[in-house]
Amino acid sequence: MSGAFEQSLSRSYLNGTNANYIEALYEHYLADPDSVESHWRDYFRDLESMDPSRVRDIPHGPIREAFEQLGRSSARGRSVLAGEGMDAMAAQKQAAVLRLINAYRVRGHQHADTDPLHLRERPSVPDLDPAFHGLTEADLDTPFNTGSLFAPERLTLREIIDLVKTVYSGPIGSEYMHITDTAQKRWIQQRLEKPRAGAQLSAEQKKALLQRLTAAEGIEKYLNSKYVGQKRFSLEGGEATIPVLDEMVQRGGAHGVKEMVLGMAHRGRLNVLINVMGKSPAELFAEFEGEHAPEHANAGDVKYHMGYSSDIQTEGGPLHLALAFNPSHLEIVNPVVEGSARARMQRHGDETGSTVLPVLIHGDAAMAGQGVVMETFQLSQARGFYTGGTVHLVINNQIGFTTSNPLDTRSTFYCTEVAKMVQAPIFHVNGDDPEAVLFVTQLAMDYRREFNSDVVIDLICYRRHGHNEADEPSATQPMMYKKIKARPSVRKLYADQLADEGVIGKDDAKGMERAYRDALDAEQVVAPGALEEHDNEVTVDWSPYFDSSWDEPVDTSVSVERIRHLQDRLQQLPAGFELNPRVASVMESRRKMAAGALAMDWGFAETLAYAALLEEGHSVRLTGQDSGRGTFFHRNSVLHNAADGSTHTPLKTLTDNPDDFTVIDSLLSEEAVLGFEYGYATADPQTMVIWEAQFGDFANGAQVLIDQFIASGETKWGRLCGLALYLPHGYEGQGPEHSSARIERFLQLCAEHNIQVCVPSTPAQFFHMIRRQMLRHWRKPLVVMTPKSLLRHKLSTSVLDDLSSGRFQLVIDDPDGVKASQVKRVVLCSGKVYYDLLEERRRQARKDVALVRIEQLYPFPEAELSALLKRRYKTAREVVWCQEEPKNQGAWYQSFHHLSQCVTREQKLSYAGREPSASPAVGYAKVHHEQQRRLVADALGKIHG
Q1: How far apart are alpha carbons 318 and 310 in whole angstroms?
Q2: pTM score of the predicted model
Q3: Which ranges form a coiled coil (predicted)?
Q4: For 539, which DSSP code?
Q5: Where are the alpha helices (DSSP H) in 370-460?
Q6: Which of 332, 508, 723, 917 is most buried, judged by most C-beta within 10 A?
Q7: Which residue segments constitute the domains of the chain, with CATH numbers given?
Q8: d(Cα 908, Cα 918) in Å, to the nearest integer?
């Protein structure tokens, strides 16, 4: 700090008596250093350097102490000469004004006029009262410095209060002061305070806004009159949603967005399809009349769950708009949308989200109540899941299902509190003020573009009808619905406003209504800018993947020479890269495996399967909570430099684009991460997308995704998806948790060749299964029971010839040289138990028992198994299904009907395994081993004489 400035401080009115004023300046400096003049900025910075530990301790920090010292050292002490500056009282008043401004920025939203129904009393916020800060009516016409407010340098207190009330307690309530990034806060302040949080619209823009509200209301009235009593989940009460989405599409297109992925639940979905996306009214009417079935869907779904895609003309060119399908588990679509957006970004080579925009529309009760919302927010800035920021729109009808009391639906004042975890700004806006809604939409879109971060619009409105049109909401909410019935629609309110302003004539609004209805009667597309038959270069052609079959023959082999070449490339490390000794041992073992000097393990086979796919032009994406290394230290796809902590991923070096291979150690989420990967796989058929559970039972946390998307997405929505799930499974005495991946649940969901359930028992089988998943044209989810102890089992190995000349075997016959004529009993099994059976049979030197592995439980290989049982082992009279899982779990009950079709009339089919149990496994190791010994003995049976 310059001596001249310090001397001027001691001479001026800014002495120790005015510490409050200086503290207020310092608070502004802490919020934004650029908001104070340069000499003050330098002064505060110098003071901080004196004692950094006390920088933000305002009451007892260096600022107060410095000014008290200035006051004591001043020749005039605590007096101020007239004409040299403000006196002590004036300085205190100035400080109070700055605190009042700050209070409105922080808490003004609590007094904002955002609820059109005025259902809740405004909370008491003393900070917003000038008297709280020591300001009186006598101060109203006194000019004050406006500090960091984006306004003239000096205004009267009356003008300052009017400004901050208009900006922060008008129809928009802004929450952004929780953001720690100063640049973001100052950007928002400028965008709010300079225009006084108001849209500057021309007469034509106002008319266009009224037309969109007319469309939003018009489709609802039309459907209500034409299809009386049918469910449509009306948008009435929240019609401003349509201009919001229109503005997002048009502004996004002008910003360079080429694709927008939209996720929403039921409320207003049909309205959005017609008025924003350009769906043909004729098509919608056919759905209401039960005459329309979407292509490539079998059972189909109700019309307000269906997805749709279209192209909209914008100032920046055509924008592809994709609405994700959505089940009744309302918020579960969130991660699916994000995954789809990420896949599209990858296709565009877009690392920031400048060309792809995800938009999520939430319900108020669902956003506050469902955990997947938090999990999806947690994904937003995480590596591998980043999508450049999502625009969130809450259609806040303040009632949820039938409950309007927030005390029953959440523990927070707002339903949007969860968004603060990622420091997203939140703009609460009155849904009956269309111009305020439009202003907030523009602000949100520009913020997302500027900072590539999430932003939330909380559209506070109401629901004119019940949860559905047959519901009677006034039975449970009589007072709320008394207000709603007496309230004109937002279109009527805005039309009256424009008529009063002279923007439209007396009959113009009715003319707009008639024109819109006439267009619906003529079954014309009514969405502005909708393009028909547009040849969109950004979309993926899925036609090669339709009408394929699961047993399509495909060559998955890779020559030994190619395997060795790939492994040589994977062995190459950056100069000076120092491996952990255990990892170095793994790498050395893989070198020997490629040379044929060591039996191949699972980690080697898996890595080479990915390497071959990458070399052939496919991409691979693998996520899970410990996928880089592998939960069981078997994969080691990401190598860590023991010297400096840097990383190296050998598979990334096989292609010109390192992003062709992605492996991510994901956050501790199953539901959101699996949803993200499902969404990714539905948008990219050329990438092997894999989600790996840390243990198979962790998939329990994502059951909604499995039931409502993975198992049934194609049947309901005609949506193909090649996602693979790796679920470690096997009984090793670890107790009820981490033993079972719940095979029975997946098998129960199997029908119509909807998914694949595989239990590979050798590294080569795993290799061929991975390659088959991508080299076939069949794009169905693959559920794999992956091994744990088998990863290093001495018998569970393969040789190079198994990769170069083999294929994925649905059924593996006994390889141990048994003679079919001597076999009296055939034991069928899957997975790890095979090796327990094999070791015990060898110990007993049995020749009368054949062990047959079923490697694919669905689609069940009846033809292959029948051929073995009815031809090769036709003399055997006993066929036993052996499993580790309890009888009521595992594959037995779900596969019994398949097994019964494969045995001869003379063969008796029986079960060997654990007794039925409510728990997946016992918790005591000794009991586990005894159960395992007994089930193996039961399966092998007595020695035949």
Answers
A1: 10
A2: 0.90
A3: none
A4: S
A5: 371-379, 406-409, 434-451
A6: 723
A7: 3-160 (no CATH), 203-485 (3.40.50.970), 560-804 (3.40.50.12470), 813-940 (3.40.50.11610)
A8: 28
Asked if residue 84 has pLDDT above 60, the reply is: no
Tell me the backbone φ, ψ of residue 595, rounded to 5 degrees.
-80, -10
pLDDT above 60 for 832? yes
Contact 917, 888 (CB under 8 A): yes
| Helices 157-168 and 88-107, axial angle in degrees (round to 10) | 10
Identify residue 26 by its one-letter amino acid code. Answer: Y
- Tokens representing 221? 């009235």
Q: Which amino acid is at 753?
A: H
**851 forms bridges with which residues in the sheet?**
827
For 122-157, the pLDDT digits (tens) are 899 999 999 999 999 999 999 999 999 999 999 999
Helix, strand or coil, per DSSP, at residue 877: coil
Burial class for 540, CB neighbours closer than 10 Å (0-12, 13-18, 19+):
middle
| Nearest-angstrom CA–CA distance, 274 and 232 | 13
Question: Are the beta carbons of 112 and 168 closer than 8 angstroms?
Answer: yes
Q: DSSP for 605-636?
A: HHHHHHHHHHHTT-EEEEEETTTTT-TTS---
Copy the structure tokens of residue 341.
Answer: 């957006």
**Cis omega (within 30 of 0) for bond into 434:** no
Rounded Cα–Cα distance for residues 341 and 384 (Å): 12
| Residue of 940, 878, 894, 875 lying closest to 913 (CA atoms) | 940
Q: What is the mean pLDDT of residues 350-377?
A: 95
The confidence score (pLDDT) of residue 296 equals: 60
Q: Which residues have C-beta within 8 Å of that of residue 205, sequence separation ≥ 6?
A: none
The per-residue pLDDT for 21 is: 67
Average pLDDT of every residue of the chain: 90
Separation CA 385–CA 623 (nearest Å)? 10
**Helix or strand or coil: residue 318?**
strand
Q: 455-473, pLDDT tens digit by residue?
A: 999 999 999 988 877 788 8
- The CA–CA distances, whole Å, from 175 to 172, 192, 455, 674, 922 equal 10, 12, 11, 31, 52
- Is there a contact between 458 and 419 (Cβ–Cβ < 8 Å)? no
Strand, coil or helix: 194: coil
- Residue 284 CA to residue 430 CA, distance in Å, equals 30
Q: Rounded to whole angstroms, how far apart are CA atoms 250 and 717? A: 28
Position 52 scores a pLDDT of 45
Six token digits for residue 364: 């108020």
Interval 605-636: pLDDT, tens: 999 999 999 999 999 999 999 999 998 989 99
**Contact between residue 393 and residue 241 where contact means Cβ atoms under 8 Å apart:** yes
Instruction: Tell which residue, 265, 403, 262, has the closest CA to residue 331.
Output: 265
DSSP 661: E
> What is the distance between the alpha carbons of residues 315 and 320, in angstroms, rounded to a whole number?
13
State both tokens at 202: 């021309």
The residue to which tokens 């908001």 are assigned: 35
Eight-state DSSP code of residue 414: S
Pick from 428, 432, 430: nearest CA to 457: 428
- The residues near 451 (Cβ < 8 Å, ≥ 6 apart) are 181, 184, 187, 389
Say if residues 876 and 823 touch (Cβ distance below 8 Å): yes
Q: Cβ of 804: how many Cβ atoms within 10 Å?
A: 15
Place of tokens 């990858």: 346
Rounded Cα distance, 457 and 444, in Å: 7
| Bridge partner list, 539 | none
Q: If you search the block for the tokens 């565009």, which residue do you land on?
A: 348
Burial class (CB in 10 A: 0-12, 13-18, 19+), 581: exposed
Are the beta carbons of 761 and 790 closer than 8 angstroms?
yes
Q: Burial-class residue 794 by CB neighbours within 10 Å (0-12, 13-18, 19+).
A: exposed
Element (H, E) at 338: helix 333-348
